[in-house]
Amino acid sequence: MFFLQLCTLCVLLEISLPNVWAKPPDKITKAKQQTAGKQESKKTADIAAIKEIKHKLADAKENFKESNVEVVKNTVKELKDSGFGNDEILEKNISFKHHNYEEMTWLLKDYSKKYHKIARLYDIGTSVQNRKLWVMEISNNPGKHEPGEPEFKFVANMHGDEAIGREMLLHIIKYLCKNYGVNRRVTNIVDTTRIHILPSMNPDGYEMEATFGHNRWKSSRTNANGVDLNRNFPDQFFPSTSGPPQPETRAVMRWIKSIPFVLSASLHSGALVANYPYDDNPSGQSVYSATPDDDVFRQLARSYSEAHPTMHLANAPWKCKDIPREHFIDGITNGAKWFTVSGGMQDYNYVHSNCFDVTLELGCQKFPNASELPEYWKENKEALLAFIEQVHTGVHGFVKDEDGGPISGARILVANRRHDVFSARDGDFWRLLVPGSYEITVSARGFEQETKTCTVLSNKAAALNFELKRMRMREPRRLMDDDTWPRARIPDGAGFESEEKRKVERTGNGEIDDDYDDTARRGSFYQGNSERVNDEFPVTRNYPHPK
Questions:
Q1: How far is CA 226 from CA 121, 160, 214, 218, 420, in A?
Q2: Could you read off the pLDDT of 479-528 as tens digits, one per residue?
Q3: What is the distance between the alpha carbons of residues 20 and 22, in angstroms, rounded to a whole number?
Q4: Strand order of the sheet with strand 411-414?
Q5: How many Cβ atoms are within 10 Å of 389's Cβ, its own excluded?
Q6: Is there a catalytic annotation at residue 167?
Q7: Maximum Cα–Cα distance across the chain
Q8: pLDDT (average), residues 440-461
Q9: Which residues contact 256 (CB under 8 A, 6 or more apart)?
Q10: Which residue, among 137, 104, 120, 97, has the nearest Cα to 377 in the 3D structure?
Q11: Is 463 helix (H, G, I), strand (E, B) or coil?
């Protein structure tokens, strides 16, 4: 009776009773059951994976634009060949389009919030029409200069009608943010380098170009005041001919004075070449104008051109039928040898700060169709990463006193190179050099100078520290052959926080004006031995593409 009641209850509750009379399964049956169980588990896992892929595809379908169709069509192998390995994240929100000022601002703010642990957005000033000059800082410790970590910067869209560099920098920002902690190379770059990216130095000119195109009464190459910003910086050979410094120029000059940048690149378009200083010479003619670090600049320029799939080729593809083709050996050129530019930004970086700067021309097109941007990104992504890594070459170290305190403003002199750099607030310094053996002397006011030798290897910076002893007697008037010490405030690397920004804006204009008044002395001090190398680097055609 009890058993019958139990069976009735099980039926009602949809519970099956164990078959107590069934024989125990033999080995074959047991194996089949185990196999079936494994297959069921695998099937469940596969279903979960398929659902996950389905969601990813839905996201990709929703977010990818028509211009991204080639990216979607790529096979796994093609993606890997393009640099998307197993340890990278394929950006689902990638958007190959031209971003106007509002869209660019939204994108930068969005990424600074999403990736706030490594990204910080700040501005260095405003344009003539009051648009902010946004800079995205990417670092594992954003907002702070870490002693011993080099500072790097990218600048683009200096000319309003040159849009490729602007979009490439927006993509490198997204790429670094999304792949940090996933891709080993990206993680190492961000952990060891403080990167500053200014996507648009001339937002007013860009808006004019994007709105009105080429059919307009005023050039969008210049800023809103009609001034070419790449002719507006203090020149080492000639007085300024472009009038007083523009708001955008002053903002960048204050930026350079406030952070101890080591390496920089300015992205342009109109040609396909990596251009290095000097951009002009005392004669004003298109002849080679070598800096004291000509070998270093050639190495920096080649690091980009050789990482680019076509820039270094003798006959690189040329998309512009209406512009004569130019040929550059190894895809690099001395600026003045190509054509002279007075008041350029790259020479200003080198002459008036510690920063080595080159100009990267990314193609003959200036404002290509958005559908062509994926190809430009594919061509330049590896080269951009390789160029950032060049900041970790040469010599770096600290200058301290006998008590271990940092010495800021110490002069670092490399024998037979008439271009010195100076230590930052924490006593740290960086000096880019090509592989070789060097004799390096460090001096500071009130201290005895010290000389050491070191060997620089390729692709790795040599560490070299100095401990200076205080002078026991009255400091002589002349510590070295040249008694020229930096008059500018030592960069502290703090960045542009609101209080720091106001401080720089209050005190920086005098220093900037001094740079404009300093032309004659700088010209005689920095002129390199150009005649010796002038015939070694010919340019097949000096077509006047304005940098």
A1: 28, 11, 15, 8, 35
A2: 444 444 444 345 655 555 544 454 444 445 666 666 666 554 444 333 44
A3: 6
A4: 421-422, 411-414, 436-443, 450-456
A5: 18
A6: no
A7: 118
A8: 95
A9: 348, 349, 352, 353, 355
A10: 97
A11: strand
Whether pLDDT at 310 is above 50: yes
DSSP 302-318: HHHHHHSTTTTSTT---
Query: Any idea how long the chain is?
Result: 547
pLDDT (tens digit, 9 = 90+) per residue, 204-227?
999 988 887 654 445 689 999 999
Q: What is the pLDDT of residue 12?
A: 43
Q: Which two tokens stand for residue 278?
A: 């000097």
The rounded distance, in Å, linking the Cα atoms of 505 and 244 is: 17
- This prediction has a pTM of 0.76
Distance CA 159, CA 229 (A): 7
Please state, in angstroms and rounded to a whole number, the distance separating the CA atoms of residues 179 and 193. 15
Tell me the Ramachandran region of residue 455: left when phi exceeds 0, alpha when psi lies from -120 to 50, beta otherwise.
beta
Q: Please give the DSSP secondary-structure letter assigned to residue 279.
A: S
d(CA 539, CA 332): 10
Catalytic residue among 361, 448, 467, 531: 361
Mean pLDDT of 189-201: 98
Give whole-number Cα distances, 532 to 104, 294, 296, 528, 535, in Å.
Answer: 46, 12, 16, 10, 8
If we measure between CA atoms, which residue out of 313, 303, 332 comes closest to residue 537? Answer: 332
What single-letter DSSP state applies at residue 371? G
The DSSP H or E segment spanning 465 is none
Distance of CA 185 to the CA centre of its chain: 15
Contact 228, 251 (CB under 8 A): no
User: In 338-435, which ranges are E strands?
Assistant: 356-363, 395-401, 411-414, 421-422, 428-431
Tokens 């110490």 map to which residue?
410
3-class secondary-structure state, position 154 = strand
For 56, the 3-state DSSP assignment is helix
Q: Write the CA distances from 29 to 19, 24, 32, 34, 40, integer angstroms.
A: 16, 9, 5, 9, 16
Which stretches of 127-247 are assigned E, i.e. beta strand?
Answer: 132-138, 151-156, 194-198
- Tokens encoding 360: 């990267």
Query: Any idea what DSSP says for residue 87?
Result: T
H-helix or E-strand containing 454? strand 450-456
User: For residues 380 and 387, what is the distance between their CA atoms, to the nearest angstrom?
Assistant: 10
* Cβ burial, residue 268 (10 Å; 0-12/13-18/19+): buried
- Average pLDDT in the 441-449 region? 96
Q: What's the token pair of residue 444?
A: 């500071």
Please tell me whether the peptide bond between 278 and the residue prior to it is cis, using omega within 30 degrees of 0: yes
How far is it, in rounded angstroms, from Cα 180 to Cα 11? Answer: 58
In angstroms, the CA 400 to CA 468 distance is 6
Q: What is the mean pLDDT of residues 420-437?
A: 97
Cis peptide before 115 (omega within 30 of 0): no
Distance of CA 187 to the CA centre of its chain: 15
